[in-house]
Fold this protein.
Amino acid sequence: MNQRAYTLELLQLASAVPSGNRQAFMTAFQASEKNPVVLFGFNIFLGALGVDRFLVGDILAGVLKLLTLGGLGLWQLIDCFLIGSRARNKNLELARQLANSFSRTAQPGADESTATSN
């Protein structure tokens, strides 16, 4: 996934969250998102130990990468190209989960407006 498609989908998810919860959604997302540039750095320096895969949440791939020392460097080299898109995909999964949870919660003041109109 390229940067433009990632940004567009993230903006769509954020705009789907009710405006009362949008700031909380963005705060929660920014606190938990994975930075592709940081993961690239981890891949360069600690990729043979699988640290980049552990950080992105791919525990099995991290263990296999650790046991094979990054596939003797080959897997580490391949991950230089793949880890950025993997991080963006994980971020979108997180954003979808957060958007669903913030869309289900009641907006502050929503109960008061329906109670006064009845």
User: Anything to note?
Assistant: Helices lie at 3-16, 22-32, 36-46, 51-56, 59-67, 69-72, 74-104, 110-117.
